[in-house]
Specification:
The protein is about 45% helix and about 10% strand. By secondary structure, the protein is α/β, with parallel strands linked by helices. The chain has a single domain, classed as TIM Barrel (Alpha-Beta Barrel), CATH 3.20.20. Helix 3 (about 30-45) packs across helix 10 (about 245-260), helix 5 runs parallel beside helix 6 (about 140-150) and helix 9 (about 205-220) packs parallel to helix 10 (about 245-260). Bound molecules: S-adenosyl-L-homocysteine and iron/sulfur cluster. Iron/sulfur cluster binds near residues 62, 66 and 71.
């Protein structure tokens, strides 16, 4: 029996993996074995359904200056936009009419959208449409998060980005990993289903860091984990960094599925952007979520977090959703018909 098989055998009996186990899986040479094992776990724990989350990128203004991101405030080359509340609601309406059961409201950290304004928008979406709402607007006060929860938001996506505290503070000037984790705990306390996640291929990251990313998400009991490659953006200080590769990203994804069997794992747009089959490969290695971008075409081109993002010329509802549904069908899977709530909120209704 190989070391990989020994670890998986132990996990199969319900044992909790140690950090050394996770490092060993991440550095195992038995990729194919890991991949098919992850696929089996996904099928056993979550079935064949792939949940769609329609994302509306409603503002690309950001007060933060993360070294990896094209929306950073120091990027003067980016043309900035904000959608109006009516535009956001219209887009949500189109998404709901196209059958989406989750709407994700994402933006840079834009104080122009106060918690009150966001809450108003969330409340209207929840009242008019039969959808779950995920919010992803970065670091806010606990009071802000509470207002959004009271307005009816179901989930919050706040990636921890990297579990290495020094790397975190270097890449996200003026902020700490501890503070990001504190916010995730607040969100959970307030009743949100929480989503976290990390980038793969950040400069200075190694297998130990990636193992800690997975261990941290296990500890936080996240209901979603967005794991995608870091893609260098020429308009940022990390323009010359190497970035994440397909093979490592898929391996981290597969190990995440093994360690977090019930957690929703998206086949990320970032992975689809560095390989034409990226999302299909992810679906076969543990992923069970895809996030079609339903932002109006004129805006989505400007939400340039990283270069060569796929689908930016396609209109979300009439083009992206049918395209992604076909991709899911060709992977032998079906599109989820429910809200696709997290594993701790399965019984809940929106
Ligand atoms: N402002 C919010 C949400 C928008 S950023 C926040 O930061 O939480 C959404 C995600 O984009 C981030 O969580 C990060 O993981 C990802 N991202 C940023 N720059 C990236 C890059 N260059 N390559 C890949 N993903 C990136
Ligand atoms: Fe702003 Fe989020 Fe980009 Fe950081 S990752 S610069 S907070 S949009």
């Amino acid at each position: 029996m190989t070391a990989t098989q020994e670890i998986l055998g132990r996990l199969e009996t319900g044992a909790r993996p140690s950090r050394d186990d996770v490092v060993a899986l991440l550095t195992s040479s038995e990729e194919q074995f890991l991949f098919s094992y992850a696929d089996k776990i996904r099928e056993r724990c979550l079935g064949d359904e792939v949940h769609l989350r329609g994302i509306i990128e409603f503002s690309n203004y950001c007060v933060k200056n993360c070294l990896y991101c094209g929306l950073r405030r120091g990027n003067r080359r980016l043309v900035r936009y904000r959608m109006t509340a009516d535009e956001i609601l219209e887009t949500a309406a189109e998404g709901a009419a196209a059958g989406l059961k989750t709407i994700v409201l994402q933006s840079g950290e834009d104080p122009h959208f106060t918690a009150k304004e966001l809450s108003r928008i969330i409340a209207v979406v929840k009242e008019r449409y039969d959808v779950a709402v995920t919010v992803s607007v970065g670091d806010r006060t606990k009071r802000d998060y509470r207002l959004m929860k009271e307005a009816g938001a179901d989930r919050y996506l706040l990636k921890h980005e990297t579990s290495d505290p020094e790397l975190f503070s270097r890449l996200r000037p003026g902020t700490t990993l501890q503070d990001r984790i504190k916010r995730l705990r607040w969100l959970k306390e307030l009743g949100f289903q929480i989503g976290s996640g990390n980038m793969v291929g950040l400069p200075g990251q190694d297998a130990e860091t990636l193992a800690d990313d997975i261990m941290l998400m296990q500890e936080l009991e996240v209901e979603m984990a967005g794991i995608g490659p870091f893609i260098p953006n020429s308009d940022t200080p990390l323009a010359r960094a190497q970035g994440g590769d397909v093979a490592t990203t898929l391996k981290v994804l597969a190990v995440a599925r093994i360690v977090l069997p019930n957690t929703h794992l998206p086949a990320t747009t970032a992975l689809g952007s560095i390989h034409p089959e990226g999302r299909q490969m992810a679906l076969a290695r543990g992923a069970n979520v895809v996030m079609p971008d339903i932002t109006p075409v004129g805006y989505k081109k400007l939400y340039r977090i990283y270069p060569n993002k796929i689908c930016i010329d396609e209109e979300g509802t009439t083009q992206c959703i049918p395209c992604i549904s076909a991709l899911i069908a060709s992977s032998g899977r079906s599109v989820g018909t429910g809200y696709g709530h997290g594993w701790m909120h399965q019984q809940r209704r929106t």
